[in-house]
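Issue: ligand-bound run for zinc ion - logging full I/O for the record.

Environment: standard queue, default settings, no custom constraints.

Inputs:
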Amino acid sequence: MEKNNIINEDIDIQVAERRNLKGNNFKFKKYLMFIFFFLIFLLPFIVLAFKSNLKLNFSGINAVKETINDDLSILGHLPYKEISKEKLVFIEPNIEVHIDMRKSLLKMRDDAQKNGINLVFLSGYRSISLQKDIFYSLKSMRNQIAAERAKVSAPPGYSEHSTGFAIDIGDAYKRETDFEVEFENTDAFRWLKENAAKYHFKLSFNKNNKNVDYEPWHWRYEGSIEALKVFEASNRNLKKQKN
Ligand SMILES: [Zn+2]
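Outputs:
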């Protein structure tokens, strides 16, 4: 057979051409196989590269998210959603608070009273529309621009009061210090500073806050998971300011 083929090749060009074609085909297949194995060899590296790229992308997204989070604040105030009505309870005829903090707040007032301190609740939950009235009416009354006003009152949608977890407190014996920095010189404030944490209350705008003026009367509750979630961004910012 071998011999025959050789003879054929010599005299029959067509056969030779076919053989040549077959050879090309074989070379092509070999070439394909080579690419195939090369790709298989490369596959783990490709997967690895893709994975790390994905990771990079995700961390990129997180970084963007964080920036967005930081940028959400207006004039030093963070945005807060309005709490749903079902979660609010009256603790006084004109003061509503988040149901989570009622018990703790009233216990704090009772215990203060046992120590001869009379705490007065000045303002609890405020709707965004009420905050709007306060922000804009006081601003024009005091002839202040928004940035100045924001130092003493949050813009609508940016007040801790709309969460139901904030309470403004005064001293029953020193009503002239209501909503004033002088409240810090009252017995009520001194008692709060020493004891409020036991009831999960914390001063929101302390003296270190760069953007918002010191508000010794404004306390917020952080004694429930929901409250902690609400103030998570704020606490993160406070941490950053300290560093
Ligand atoms: Zn307040």
